[in-house]
Amino acid sequence: MLWRIDPASDEPLYTQLVTQAHLAAARGELTPGDRLPSARELAESLDLNVHTVLKAYQQLRDEGLIELRRGRGAVVAARAATDLSPVEQALTALVRVAREAKLSTETLTVLVKEAMNR
């Protein structure tokens, strides 16, 4: 899995990591038993503070996506698989309708974020 962050984004860096892990698990890029890089390795590769990565890993643990094991690091949990296909189908339809309405990516993003916060 390739980890990416956008330092210019309004979304906190640890949240970006959490989101990427969930999406990778849903798409089958991360499967139960897979090991994630150590917090130190990931922090160095992304030029982040190790505590940022640890916060993301702790949230992923709390959400049940990973297990943190002493000596083994972060491992994708058995119950991590999620089927995103209905969501992806709905998003495809949403994007098609938004394009027909000539909405910008930014406007659509704001609309989705507002809907998620309701």
From TrEMBL:
This protein's record includes keyword Transcription regulation: yes
Supply the PROSITE patterns for this chain: HTH_GNTR
Q: Which UniProt keywords apply?
A: DNA-binding, Transcription, Transcription regulation
Keyword Transcription on entry: yes
SUPFAM superfamilies in the record: Winged helix' DNA-binding domain (SSF46785)
For this protein, the record's SMART domains field holds: HTH_GNTR (SM00345)
Pfam families recorded: GntR (PF00392)
Q: Which superkingdom? A: Bacteria
The residues covered by the HTH gntR-type domain are 11-79
The record, for PANTHER family, names: GNTR-FAMILY TRANSCRIPTIONAL REGULATOR, HTH-TYPE TRANSCRIPTIONAL REPRESSOR YTRA
Q: What is this protein called?
A: GntR family transcriptional regulator
| Species per Swiss-Prot/TrEMBL record | Actinoplanes palleronii
